[in-house]
Structure formats: structure tokens, C-alpha cells
Amino acid sequence: MSRRMNVCLLVLLFAASWVSAEPAKKVRLFILSGQSNMAGMKPEVSFTPAVKAAYPNDEVIVVKSAQGGQPIRRWYKKWKLPGGGDPNVRDLKPEVGDLYKVLMTKVNAALAGRKPDTVAFAWMQGERDAKMGWQSVYAESMNGLIKQLRDDLKHPGMVASIGRLSDCLNGKEGWDAVRAAQVKVAGDDPLVGWVDTDDLNNKGDRNDLHYTKEGYAELGKRYAAQLVKLLGAKGD
């Protein structure tokens, strides 16, 4: 074998070893779901740019599925009425968990058979439950939904960020109770946090249930910052 061929082989071997030594890109899945204040948030404005900036060398997948005016029963498959009773009685149609099916269809399509290395979940919901008087089962339902996602995605270490209801109906029993439940869920699980939304809505406006354009952009930033922090605390 000629000296020139030996040199070429060495170069090829070095190149191959260098390529194989490069770390594989991680697949990082971010799931956003909830009712109207999640529906109003545009991930591409602030959330997606922030998480992509945090993980420039990884593949970042952001999936959003939200629908206004919906209770948590449409996501949590084991939801029960306060005090028991059939959760699928006629006046509570559609069926329990139907929006969760929609969400998971989108998630599975985005993953296309790949297993994510990390999973993070952002949730903005609770207004409907507060108004329906279902606050007593909210913490149980929120914990159940988080576990449901962790089990279905086979990621027991999934982190989550809960958007606490804003202050627009503070003083109402159901509203205050759901806010407290959201904080409790976050406090009981080291992989879960909550973000404040009290300064994001239309103060003094008849639509103060919903956030301003700037408020939605800020919400995306807060979710991104907290989820990245939670993943970092896990070493992910």
C-alpha cells in the first residue's frame, strides 16, 4: 500500500472517530395546554424562541393544544364530581378526557415515533372549574393529569409549570380555592412550579379575565424560564 493511501486512510479514520464522538442531539418536547389564556398565547412570539435559545444544539419540539372555556375534566381521564357521582352525566358532555386525546394525537404526530429525552409541560387552566364550583377536586385532578402525562409518555421525570389564575376574580370562593390548589400542587412536587399571572391581564377592562398582547408574550417567557430551570435542576 502506498504512503499516499496510508495517509488517506488515516484521515478517514480520524474523521470517522471525530464524527462518532460528537454528542447526539437531544429531543426536547415541550407541551402547552389549557383553556382560553393558553389558547391566546402564541408560542412563536416568546416561548419557542426562549427554549430554542436555551438548547441551541438540541431538537426542540413545541406542541400546543388548547380550547377556551373548558374544565380540567376534559383532560384528566379519571376526573370525578365533587362528592362522587357519574362524571359523564348528560349535562357534562363531552366525555371525560376527550381534549386529552386531541392533545396526545398532536404530541404523537410531532414525535413521529421518536422518544423524547426530556419532557416539559406548561398548563394554563382553572377558570371554568372555579366558576362551576368544582374547586374541591382541582388539586387531585391537576396531580392526576401530570401523572397521566408522565405515565403515557413514559417520562416519570417530566417537569411542569402551572400558570396560577390571575387576580381578576379574587375574593370569590371557587377562584381563591383553585389558585391555592395550583400553588399547593407545585409546592408538593419538586418537578413542578407555578408562574404568577396577576400582572398580565387587562386591569380595569371588562375583559380582565384575559391577558393583554404584552401579557401573553410575558407568560411565554415565564413558562420557558421556569421549565428550563426545572430541567436544569434535574441535570437535563
Summarize the structure in words.
With 236 residues, this protein is an alpha/beta fold. The protein has a single domain (25-233), classed as Rossmann fold. It contains 8 helices and 5 strands. It has helices at residues 3-21, 36-39, 47-54, 98-111, 127-132, 138-152, 173-188, 213-233; strands at residues 27-34, 59-66, 118-124, 159-163, 192-195. A 5-stranded parallel beta sheet has the order 2-1-3-4-5, sandwiched between helices. Helix 3 packs parallel to helix 8 (213-233). Mean pLDDT is 90; it is low at 7-11.
Please give a quick description of this structure:
It contains 8 helices and 5 strands; from the N terminus they run αβααβαβααβαβα. The protein is an alpha/beta fold.
Total domains, how many? 1
Mean pLDDT level: 90
- State the end-to-end distance: 48 Å
CATH level-1 class? Alpha Beta
Number of helices: 8
Task: Briefly note the CATH topology name.
Answer: Rossmann fold
Shape: globular
Radius of gyration: 22 Å
Strand order of the largest sheet: 2-1-3-4-5
Portion of residues within helices: 40-55%
CATH homologous superfamily (4th level) name: SGNH hydrolase
Report the sheet-strand fraction: 5-15%
CATH architecture: 3-Layer(aba) Sandwich
Q: Biggest sheet: strands, sense, closure?
A: 5 strands, parallel
According to DSSP, the number of beta strands is: 5
